[in-house]
From TrEMBL:
Pathway assigned to this chain's UniProt record: Nucleotide-sugar biosynthesis; UDP-alpha-D-glucuronate biosynthesis; UDP-alpha-D-glucuronate from UDP-alpha-D-glucose: step 1/1
Gene3D superfamilies: Cytochrome c1, transmembrane anchor, C-terminal, NAD(P)-binding Rossmann-like Domain
Organism: Algoriphagus aquatilis
Protein EC: 1.1.1.22
Coiled coil: none
Protein name: UDP-glucose 6-dehydrogenase
Protein family according to the UniProt entry: Belongs to the UDP-glucose/GDP-mannose dehydrogenase family.
Amino acid sequence: MKIAVVGTGYVGLVSGACFADVGIDVTCVDIDKKKIEKLKNGIMPIYEPGLEEIVIRNYKSGRLHFSTDLGEAIQGAEVAFIAVGTPPGQDGSADLKYVLAVADEIGRKMTDYLVVATKSTVPVTTGEKVRAAIQSALDKRGSNLPFAVASNPEFLKEGAAVEDFLRPDRIVIGIDDDRAEQIMQRLYKPFQLSGDRIIYMDIPSAEMTKYAANAMLATKISFMNDIANLCERVGADANMVRKGIGSDPRIGNKFIYPGVGYGGSCFPKDVKAIIKTAKEYRYELKVLQAVEEVNNAQKFVLADKVKAHFGETLRGMTFAMWGLSFKPNTDDMREAPAAVIIDELRAAGAQVKAYDPVAMEEAKAHYIFDKVTYCKDAYEALVDADALLLVTEWSEFRIPSWDVVGKLLKNKVVFDGRNIYDKKYLESMGFTHYGIGSK
Ligand code: UDX
């Protein structure tokens, strides 16, 4: 079986490599020549555990190909996945120009029946727009080639993308064509999912499922951050409350960790986009508007605690920051709370010394440039720093040598943005510990 995957971002590259790994002949296509050349040489555009290995292995075995030529890639392919970016436009809605440009090119270049499946997160009704773009390109050629569109949203998490793809909780496929459904069935067969974990539905429902899933997860986080902020005020401990409510299986113990707010490429963008879609249909998603509002405010909470401890003016002070990426095991800095915290500290006159195991190159190149001093390891960041801020819960920060931390810091104060440290233990070591959601 042969397929093409257009777009070699997180979703496209991971999907392409994983499909190849189960024996499918995959061509990954991108317009970025440099990126394609690098991939051919085994250089990954992103950091993702396990990805490099799987890409190199399948490229060498000849099952995974990289190309800038979409026309060639879809020759003989049964499915073409669209996995290009849908960046938020100025008004928060997902910008479909890349998706529709690919659809148009597919229409211009396809030579046989093809299933065109969208993996990018796209607003409801995009399936119809993709269909129209392909049909109009075919019409211009005077061609009546048959084709089908499908929506096959991707639920993988950064940092665990390969694992999530190879062992998914479920696969959602929006489809309205029997022949296409059979092809998709064959494609996903190697993943050996029991029948009810592949969920077929109509295309708009599949498109909506992706937004509803991310919006629900974002809601859990904002809800918990809101409760955590109240816990601090009334003298309760959000960590205990989390355990207390999470043991109810109807609530569940996942995604209820209070912190410095959610970031990344999906939650902020998708929450904005679904609010926007609702507005277009004259409906107000009040819960999600609040979810967004709470999250925006949550990114300021850690810097506010620093100011509450040291005073509004932090002039002449230096803070050590552990972690920059929006979450561990990724170099992704998109919408990272670290960027907001750094701006806040700097605006109050402080300097920041930062260390992140993998995201520093990304931070330097695209996001916070020279706003911080980048350090070669976690301890170097502490030298001459007034206090430590833990922003991303990378494993290597979990059990530091507190003796060394205490000696290097000017003040034994820790602002723990992810509640990974044991307050009582730190206090017994002479530290002042500020978590999220407790006094
Ligand atoms: C998310 C979805 O999980 C995934 O299914 C979808 O395909 C894309 O969006 P991702 O953005 O990679 O994946 O990260 P995720 O692990 O979900 O974390 C998102 C953010 O929420 C991070 O900033 C994380 O720190 C934060 N978070 C998560 C919390 O603050 N508390 C929690 O309890 C869980």
